[in-house]
Amino acid sequence: MRFDLACLGEPLFEFNQTRADGDYRPGFGGDVSNCAIAAARQGARVAMITAVGCDSFGDRFLDLWRDEGIDTGAVRRDPAAPTGLYFITHGPEGHRFDYRRAGSAASRLGSDGLDDAVLTASAFLHVSAISQAIGPVAADAVFAAMETVRAAGGRVAYDTNLRLKLWPLARAQAIIGHSLAMVDIALPGMDDARLLTGLEDPDAIIDWFLARGVSTVALTLGAEGVVLATDGYRTRVAGHKVAAVDATAAGDTFDGVFLSALAAGADPLSAAERANAAAALSTTGYGGVAPIPDAAAVDAFMVGG
How would you list the strands of the sheet with 94-100, edge to edge? Predict the structure, then answer.
């Protein structure tokens, strides 16, 4: 079987506090898992590559991915490690994340646990810096997966999701810098990119990524949209005005929709416009998965908006 997209990373079971009553609602998260779901809801053929614990949270993730039409043949079960958890608390200054992920099953998935058949059958591989920050074994697995996909003629997409609670900035800069040499499409967010590069200007940040060999950069600017660039082309896609309540999965939604559109044959600008609309829609509901729109919702929003 051929896949449009393979996603390698850590799933996290989510407990998200609503502003209405302060209670925590269970759900699903993890940046790469969110990306996989966003792509699948656009009709892409997606495979998830990860490990989950032999616990109820792992069971629920497997059920979720299968319900979304995502292939789980490359998902391992680890009887000696749990599925990671996280909590989202909302306040006047935005949302805060608290994690219970140390020693998670995904952090123990090494290169020997990868399914090369899935990797070589995928047009795109999506990984993030979080996939590397959760531990050295996981980081090695990411590098091995990138090498396998590129050797088979596939393309690598990389979100620089920078979580400095997981690793110091200097190590993050070193690992991300090394990774970019194997990346075709960079998907940084503006806040993370500032920290990573030490730069403030979006154009300078894009130049920084292009100078490291990346062929396409989509620099997301939150509510202000996205700047899309290649070595000879650069443009800005404006944001959409929506009644945003939770931006938890906006960046992940952008990634998944952007890559699914590219896999379907869209040009980068059309893919960025669609992904930008989908990301805006995802902020109108709570949680990492529930508000991710399907293809019909994105179509309607783009026509009406």
Answer: 24-29, 12-17, 84-91, 94-100
- CATH architecture for segment(s) 5-304: 3-Layer(aba) Sandwich (3.40)
Integer Cα distance of 92 and 19 in angstroms? 10
The sheet that has 122-128: what strands, in order across it?
71-78, 46-53, 3-8, 122-128, 155-159, 185-186, 216-220, 226-230, 233-237
For residue 7, what pLDDT is reported?
99
Q: How far apart are the first and last CA of the chain?
A: 37
Radius of gyration of the chain (CA): 18
pLDDT lower than 50: segments of the chain: none
CA atoms within 13 A on the CB side of 280: 24
Q: Where are the domains of the chain?
A: 5-304
Q: What residues pair up with 236 in beta bridges, in sequence order? A: 227
Tell me what the pLDDT averaged over the chain comes to.
95
Report d(CA 153, CA 159) in Å as an integer. Answer: 20
